[in-house]
Amino acid sequence: QVQLVESGGGLVQPGGSLRLACAASGITFSPSVMGWYRQAPGKQRELVAIINNDSSTNYADSVKGRFTISRDNAKNTVYLQMNSLKPDDTADYYCNVWWPGLEYWGQGTQVTVST
Q: Which pLDDT tens digit goes with each residue over 89-100?
């Protein structure tokens, strides 16, 4: 069955960097869209970044200029490079893969930005 495994989360100081990775297994066709979402305590889940099959991207205003999403279709993996991290970036980050009519979610990985 389809499985999405996330890695790269952890504790980092403000201004630091992390790179998240999400590897999808058990899929036959490359996802039309791969993306990252996050949810902080007491807040709604929000879209962070998405990348389409043509490599076009879209970012939340709050992360533009700081985060970069990329994908490796040969490895069925999507990455999120997170630079200049702020305390407000603290959240659980979830990977998503999407085709028309079908989507899957990762288990989530925790990112904490704090001194």
A: 999 999 999 999
